[in-house]
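Hello Y.,

Per our agreement to keep a running log of every chain we model this quarter, I'm adding this entry. I've kept the format consistent with earlier entries: sequence first, then predicted structure.
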Amino acid sequence: MALRGRRRESAATTYRLCSLLLSYPDEELLAAREELAAALDQLPGSPAVTALGRFLDWWGGTDPLAVAQHYVETIDLNKRSGLYLTFYSDGDKRERGSALVRLKRLYRAAGLPLEGTELPDYLPVMLEFAAAAPDGRGEIVLRENRAALELVRLSLRDLASPYADVLDAVCHTVGAPSAAERVRVGRLAAAGPPQELVGLEPFAPPEVMPSAEARR
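Predicted structure for the entry above:
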């Protein structure tokens, strides 16, 4: 039981670190580089820890402006390596709105309602939920989106982006994709996200969009 608890705690710390490292590298986040590296040093050795160590070596030794520029070009502006996971399966279709509402309700039911302006399928948000939800229930959202995680990981690898190491850490912690999920990754990669631009502004229903006050 104690061993299981330590594993869960280690996974939670890994998810929390990945959530931060996949966020936009603003001044506040970059200023916490030494603190994040120290948190990583406290974790037992694993493939996930090794992958995050490689990323932090790049992140800590690269000019902050270059890091920010790489993030924008690789993650913000590239549909193949964006961090909104339901986009890969539902694209701009109306079904994505239902998936987002379900995620938001799942967060609320776990006592961790979504705060801030991000959509609930944003990977750093999912990782925070995976880290904080009780009894390991937070990993449900990651396992349900395992194919999308793999697609983002492979896209970042194709781009030779250091951020692929962070996705490696996430995927190592969640576990390997099943045979069915690998087949789905191939199909998603070949077809690309579905499109159905019908009344979605911007691709999410009002239930999951932040209020006017939250966006200020």
